[in-house]
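FORM 7B - TANDEM STRUCTURE REPORT

SECTION 1: FIRST PROTEIN
SEQUENCE AND TOKENS:
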Amino acid sequence: MKKLLLIICILFSITLNAQTDFSFGPKIGYKSNDYNFPLGVSLKNRGNLTLGAYGRFMFNNLVIQPELMYNYITIDYYKCTGLVTIKKNHSFALPVYLGYQFINRDNFNMRATAGPIVHFNIDDFIESMYPQLNYRFMNLGAALNLGVDIYRFTIDLGYSLGFTNVFHNIDNPNIRQNSLTFTVGYRFGK
């Protein structure tokens, strides 16, 4: 019994010594998707909005930051003959960033992170002239992020590379979703 009590006391003291800080908050910003199509078809973004929330766990200077972001994008769909249609896309992005905070001051922090990202598309992209343009529900990728905290505000610049095909039933398997994201947020907590 004494050995068990000693082990519990040691584990408790190790837990107290681990310096874990947690912060969270809302984010809003701009997101731009890039698709590369063959056969003279292209998608152009117009009106892009992303908003959501993040949580950040700090272990000394190591960072774990999951996010859940809602994306609203208006897409102009072009063929060689010109503008065919305008579509709206609603989606969610779930990145989990792992990284290092290399500047750690009271009112200024800077970090670099990377990790996996999953995109969930809510809408279908159906067009009668090109019916194979239907979004897959889920796309996988990798995301890179550079972030700055100034007082309680956080600014993030991220880029994600798509690993999986964005559309169903399309001949070219190399149509992937690459995204550039710029967000501004507010930080609650430490």
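SECTION 2: SECOND PROTEIN
SEQUENCE AND TOKENS:
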Amino acid sequence: GLDRCQAIHAEQNSLLQCRNVYEIHTCYTTTFPCVTCAKLLMNTSCRRIVYSQWYPGSDVVKSMLEKRGISVVEAV
């Protein structure tokens, strides 16, 4: 149901505030990005996402990111 969320996600807000999205290398996020945020990040120069909490059902999103060459790392 994340696609029905009316709140702006932290990743979306960060990208709106970013001076140049083509200077992003790593995105640090608390919860694994939803599909919408992942798609937005795929349109930047981001090559690594570090998260601390897995979001249930994110296997498809993780696969999508990795196919685009974006590594996904769980923070420990």
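SECTION 3: OBSERVATIONS ON SECOND PROTEIN
Helices lie at 10-17, 35-42, 59-67.
The chain has a mean pLDDT of 93.

SECTION 4: SIGNATURE
Preparer initials: ____
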